Amino acid sequence: MGGGQLFDKNVFGNLLLMKILILYSRDIDINDSGGSRTTIELMNYLVSKGVTCFTNFTIIEGGDQKIIEMPNLHLNQSLIKEHIRKKNVDIILIPEGYKLTKFAYKVTFNTNCKIVSALHNKPGYERQRFWVTLWESAKYNTSIIKRIRALLGLVFYPVLNYLYIRIYQINMTKCYNYSDKLVLLSDNFFQPFINYYRIDKNGEKLESIGNALSFNSYITKEEINEKKKQILVVSRFDERQKRISLILKIWKEIQDIHKDWTLEIVGFGRSEPMYLKIVDKYKLQRVTFHGKQFPFNYYKESSIFLMTSAYEGWGMTITEAQQLGCVPIVMNTFESLNEIIKDGVNGLIVDNNDIENFTKRLLFLIENESIRKEMAFNSMLMSKRFESRIILEKYYQIFLKIMNEK
Length: 406
Known about the structure:
This protein is of the alpha/beta class. The protein contains 17 helices and 15 strands.
């Protein structure tokens, strides 16, 4: 096709008739996790380009009517294999990484159907997850039996953690081997992925595509000037990853210095009892838990956004905040962060676990209104490089490439 060659008519016809089956282990909606939202937006984009999209799950909210939902397929190997052959499905997309790639390999065996998998997290995140899961359950779980199990898990932690990590590594290596393409969230994740999962051939199947922006509008300069003295957290309540306990400790140092500022926390999850106990223990003031909400207006009203996650794949809430001029301060715990924030320009980056410096930089933004507003405007402008049409087109181009190779 390069060098002025004409596009083969047969190939072009095949591209227009492209059929993709998306497999998920559960039903999803647009207000779910970042991976779910990206998947729905991608399907909407693909059907707008004339691609036929099938699913084995129900889209609870946010899906285009042209998407063909077939929840009756479930994860039934024979039904899905029959569907692939009957409908001549070209590509299976696995948004959940390693979970279903082996299954996809089985149902596509002896067919021309290709497999594209995605990992919507940081390679190696499993290394940071197990300890906090056990510790949190042992300390805060309301079930005595589960607390005892967690305590036993802590006693035998070295052995259990080794097995947990090793099993995950084996599964992720198989995910790569079974896939024709594996999409990561950043080029900066390529080498960690190769190292963690012992990938051969320099990871030639790897591609990188960040997550798209969530909203269709941007904040204006006038609206930035109208922002309230609010600090915002938008997060799933999962201490294993999100570590909102650190934000509450930081607020403890801030609350008596600037009594006209508030901390607004939007989200829900398993760790909420733990966070409420911390609020009570430290006698925190002006902290509001809003529960599960559509966060658009919270970003638009708030001036500063905080994230202290132990790991992230992309951190969609960062770009959501930037899009609406809510200046982010984020702990540096994932390699893709430097693609999202240029420190001091459209946000601030703090070393992992450096609560003292995090508090200082938060105070700096609170006390320097003109700089904060300038960074808010920069955040909005620079977020445009992650517009949906740009990000989703990258996926489409991968599918076109696979079809052309077929």
